[in-house]
Design brief:
Order of helices and strands: HEEEEEEEEEEHHEHHEEEHEHEEEHH
Radius of gyration: 20 Å
Distance between the termini: 25 Å
Number of domains: 2
Number of helices: 9
CATH topology of the largest domain: Aminopeptidase
Number of strands: 18
Strand content: 25-35%
């Protein structure tokens, strides 16, 4: 069963498959129109080029890979933004990286691959009596209660609860909502998506008050175990800003890091986001984070999905 992409992006612009002619033959990229810009669909942390021709391909516009490796739209008036594991334009930035973990055939063997210090933290988290619950859309409420609280604390916007519910529904059996519970209360939550032999935890959060419980170690380990049980050979911790706290945290798991290239058909510019009829010049990210932290919850519940949609 394929992913029901249109369900995820039902509130965005038109969505479709577009042909990309490459030296190795035609490929197809799914893109969605956002603010008159064609944006590659983030399949896990980056765009996905399909070799098999989809049932429906948009007749316009078409793309091709030039001799220098750059992607070119045959209609030069079309603006686009593509996220891949290599640059496809002269205009790109490399602020993000994705962290991968090769998986063993069973959890017990995987555990032996970790350092003694990491195993100690995992064991301490388990000894706290934290329980795990794995499911689908029915657990989105528990996940969102943790995720939205944590994002507000960090000063970062987040999508609406219905968006995450649509993602899980669209992926069907290849999506898992993993919730950490302590005495019946959700203290951690994650959404893991699977494709073939690879799984990625795309959204992850724990409550700061329970950090002494090593909740994040418990939840990551449960996601890794679940990926192994589902037959995956690669587990992705998702993307993070290079050299950030989350990026450094992931290194202790023995990951391999790959730079993400966010390529644009146009020169990089200040972030200008449209909210209704207004074009707003976004301030420095640190200033934005501070303002977000002190913004009342009832405001961010309305504004958050609008702003987060631009970042996602």
């Amino acid at each position: 069963m394929g992913v029901k992409w249109s369900l995820i992006y039902e509130k965005a612009g038109p969505i479709g498959w577009y042909k990309v002619s490459t030296p190795n033959g035609d490929r197809y990229m799914m893109m969605v129109t956002m603010d008159d810009i064609l944006v590659s669909m983030p399949y896990f942390s980056y765009a996905y080029l399909e070799k098999k021709k989809p049932e429906t391909v948009e007749p316009y516009p078409e793309f091709y890979i030039a001799e220098n490796g750059n992607m070119v739209c045959r209609d030069e008036t079309i603006q686009w933004h593509v996220r891949m594991l290599k640059p496809v334009s002269e205009h790109f930035h490399t602020d993000k990286a994705v962290s991968w973990l090769p998986l063993e055939r069973n959890p017990k063997k995987q555990l032996t691959r970790f350092s003694s210090n990491l195993r100690r933290k995992i064991n301490k988290s388990v000894s706290r009596g934290i329980k795990v619950e794995v499911g689908g859309p029915e657990l989105i409420g528990k996940f969102y209660s943790v995720f939205s609280h944590n994002m507000h604390r960090l000063g970062a916007p987040h999508m609406s609860k219905s968006f995450y519910s649509r993602v899980v529904t669209a992926f069907g059996r290849d999506a898992s909502v993993v919730v950490a519970l302590y005495e019946g209360k959700a203290i951690g939550g994650a959404i893991m998506l699977k494709r073939g032999e690879m799984a990625e935890t795309c959204w992850f959060a724990t409550l700061e008050d329970y950090n002494p419980f090593y909740t994040s170690y418990f939840l990551w380990w449960e996601c890794i175990k679940l990926a192994i049980e589902r037959g995956c050979r690669i587990f992705s911790f998702g993307r993070s800003s290079t050299e950030s706290g989350p990026y450094q945290y992931k290194q202790q798991w023995g990951v391999k890091n790959t730079t993400l290239y966010w390529s644009f058909s146009y020169p990089l510019r200040n972030d200008i986001y449209r909210v209704g009829p207004f074009d707003i010049l976004m301030p420095n990210r640190k200033i934005l984070a501070f303002l977000w932290k002190i913004t009342p919850c009832f405001v961010i519940r309305w504004l958050g999905p609008i702003v987060a949609g631009k970042f996602y």
